[in-house]
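Please predict the structure of the following assembly.
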Amino acid sequence: RMKYFTRLRVRRVYEWRGKPLSFNRKLKTYEYGSLAISVEGLPRITVIKIGQHILIEGEDEDNPYVAKVIRLFGDDSGKQKKAVVQWFVRVFEVPLSKLKLLGREPHPQEIFYYQGRSCDDEVDAGSILKPVQSELAPASSPPPPALASRGPARRALPTPDLTVMRRAAQGEARGGRATASAGKARAAEAESLHSSTKLSASKCLSAKRRNASARTPGVRKKLELSSECCREGSLLSCCIVLWPIKLQTGSKKVPPQGDEVMEPESMTGSLKTPRRRAATPRRPYATREAEVDNEISPMLPVIATPRGSKRKSAQLVSSRIRKQLNLLDNLQDLNSDGEDEEEFVPSKKELQSSEEEEEEEDEEEEEEAGLDSDDDVVYKKGRRAAAGPRTPRSKPRIRSSTRTPQRTPNRKITPGTPRTPQCATPSIPSRSLPARQPANVLEEARTRLHVSSVPESLPCREQEFQDIYSFVESKIEDGTGGCMYISGVPGTGKTATVQEVMRCLQHAADVDEIPPFHFIEINGMKMTDPHQAYVQILQKLTGQKATADHAAALLEKRFSNPAPRKETTVLLVDELDLLWTRKQNVMYNLFDWPTRRHARLVVLTIANTMDLPERIMINRVASRLGLTRMSFQPYSFKQLQQIIMSRLNKVKAFEEDALQLVWAALSGDARRCLDICRTATEICEHSPADPSATGLVEVGHVMEALNEMFSSAYVTAIKCASLQEQLFLRAVIAEFRRLGLEEATFQQVFVQHQALCRVEGLQPISVSEGLAVCRRLGGCRLLLLEPSRLGVLQRVRLNVSQDDVLYALKAD
Amino acid sequence: MSKRKMQPADLPAGECVSQLQEMLRQRLCHQQLPDRPEGVEAQHKHLLELLKRTSVHGESNSVLIVGPRGAGKTMLLKCVLRDLQEEKEAEKNLLQVHLNGLLQTDDRIALKEITRQLHLENVVGDKVFGSFAENLTFLLEALKKGDRSSSRPVLFVLDEFDLFAAHKNQTLLYNLLDVSQSAQAPIAVVGMTCRLDVLELLEKRVKSRFSHRQIHLLSNPTFAEYLGRVRTRLGLPDHFPDSRFAADWNASVETLCEDKSVEEVLRRHFHSSKDFRSLHMLLMLCLSRVSVAKPWIRPADLLEASRLSFADGEANMLHGLSILELCLIIAMKHLNDVYEGEPFNLQMVHNEFKKFLQRKSNSMYNFDQPVILKAFEHLQQLEMIRPVDSSSAKTQREFQLMRLMLDHSQIMEALQKYPQCPTEVKQWAMSAFG
């Protein structure tokens, strides 16, 4: 549960509290024990102490980073305030591959101990937003042992220490912050709790209320709402920890966060104020009821609803609460909580607490890690202010943590306007009948030869592979950025090689040989406009949707601002030349970002032409691209041979000399080569069975395939043309010879045509018929014509060589 | 006779003729596919196998069908699709998207059409939502999610394929062909075009992704085959309701085809063009002359139809001109002869005309300049003459340079047929000197 003490976008003032604990002479730094954060214009002061968990500003405002303070220090001038932290990773920050290792569905609010090396653990104190409570997942939570067994695979999730965990869970860890946090780290899953929302507006409201009733704020309870589905055996150990929250002596002011304030009546369980209560009665532990009921926050009312369904009174309460909430906020989607109920079942135990940050300094427990970032959002946006009281977990986002027991009616964004393609999932319907598997050698070979089949390895590109691999790997390891330009004619394996490199690097990152990184891919041909590149990058990086301009601004911010714990991003830009714009700003940005100090961006660009930078880039763009270039040479015959052989992988479908013929006919495009072989297998399959044939692809089949794919059809087309068309072609040639030019008007050719008709003993044709003949030839592009509205004046040219025409006509 | 007894009754002649008309018109207007594609059996088999592999094995393919206009490209594809539907696996699985380069003139429209025909999820009713960029990403995403064994294969038919190559960056072609060459949803891209040089239109990276399979529809039928096709096109099938009428009709078709003059006409058509569409046009003209009073096609009908279909439109238009306009045309012809096709203006034409008037005629009126100008403008409107350059506003109309859009043979032909043409005009036209 996290508290907000400050509004975002508000100026915060950071001050050391107390005297420096020690002084480091070498570095001239003072170590401090705690840091006070106050917001201008607000009386509250928040204190950050060593050992506390904090939120740190990140690029995503809605999801600040989580970390634990290890040291606080500053220089003598007092200007520089730094903190050394231990990072924690949120679920969505964990790469998917690692999430799978977890072996269970993580709670959306769960955080994990981070042991990676790639992040700087020293942050500017100015980036600290607020403290947060994290809580160790207790022993009852499902999977630690399972996790432990995979130790080496993920350093980030080390073996949990059961004893520590238990202690923490039972609240014994209070004195030992270190232990608890260690335990937490190991437990690898601190369930985060929901904060009773603090919406600014609700604060005001409740502040007023408070003033009226002169209530004292400050009792803080941690509430655990363990659901019925908890394992009985583990229940005790995971039970709630309640502790009173002392008023912070340092800040005696009226608690600004009225919503946190416990209202006396709330204890009595009056149903009038929306406050949460119903949850407890259900629990098997009667002793806790009272405490749970105390769970103050007037804004947690609905929490109980999902669970309350079992008891009438609870239902009653929840229904009333709902009504009230409904009044407060129409947006609320009450119906959803019914379904949500099921969703939280899997969570074995959840602790929930609400507390105020002001009091937190007295709390030693790290057990509680609550960050409800979603509340953050709500808070910041100030939307739904009125609805504030009700929801500990109102979340507009999809990532809403569905598993916590105390679900509030799940509020989603209002059901879409008609224009809702956002929620449409792109997919092709699946087939009703399964695809047939290859049945014989030829079909098998054909499957392997299809360009789309992913080869086990990429033969003949070992050197290029190595170069790209080491380039990207070094950048990732150093946490720097860079550009690389890769060129080569189509079909030389540029994209395939880069993707293979990335697959290998990804694998290396999975086994923790290199720091984790982000790989995204865009293709200039797969966008409608160069500026769409920004949109696609942003979407692949963060999942956000934005317009091109906005996306550019966001990316600019992301890549130029220092952010702690940033992973390297590897960006593959295919068909770079398509990103050309007149001002070249897209290219400029793509190459400029990697040079920023904090960007950690590696850009790999692919295009067809070797001299693209010289040809189309203006100087400042070309200069930023740098000189790391690589050129993929067309495959030689030997290499193509190797490729085919490795693809076929001992499937014997080709006669030796048939393959020889394939190499001989080619020009370094692997796609073409594969296509020829594939076509040859088809021809072989459908050619009438010759008893002497081996059933393999023979020279004849390859010849036929080559013929089909490369033969020019012009000669055949002329042979198949009608007599008048052939005569017209002859007339064209005759007229060209007469004029000594390669161009004549239709009228001139037509005179020749009439003469030829007479020679051939044919009835001369009319002008319109002659024009029709001419147009038909033009349609096939045997002739090149001017627009036909010029009629008899249009000029005619041959699109075939005269020799070809004469050859075709003679053979006829 | 027993056959005739089995028939309930002979249909009235009017009924027979209208049935005949309906049946043959369907055949001639392409609404009915032939049972077997004639002359292109090999190509049919090839394409059928190819599409079968996509629909049954989920193998992506791309192919171009190239052939001159009227060679039967669409017919071939339709036949193949019809035969493909008989295969149960194919019928259940195959999704089809039909695009035409003349309708989908840019990628934006084409994408919407694809999305609509695939019924992707961003389609509501018949409307496709989202911007061009979103549509593209959506479609690519959809295709990317599919895989060979589990998604339904999609057949993309691109009619007038060459026009798609004119789209900006060839984005659509690149993406479709790229999908067909990568492990995504299985698709078959079938392009149809009449341009033999279509591959040269493709950008190199698009070309590299194309499988280079081309099916050429270049059939070379002999005249005997051509004649046989006329017979099958006109022949009535056995299941025609009135068998006696059918037998009579078929016999009349037989005699028609054996007629010498008919053979002459058909041969002329055969020499002019071997495609079936022009043949169908000719037969349609004959068919429309069949009536109850004359329930068969006479050779004269065919001759008349042939005359109509070969008629020269511009020469016909000359028949409608006034004598003055005709004289101007003749003057232009002489100018063309003298100056070897150099452009002329009204003043030159008028002078030429005046020379003729002085020399020969007293029967002709000496027209005023404005009348001549009017006639000249009329000729321009009929597009028998056209200005050399389009910047007509600058020069005075009398001095604007023009070119004659008619061939001499057309003028002479028209003069022969012109009703009551004065002999001196005819002589003037034929005289070698102006």
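The radius of gyration of chain A is 37 Å. Confidence is low (pLDDT under 50) at residues 1-8, 139-311, 329-422 of chain A.
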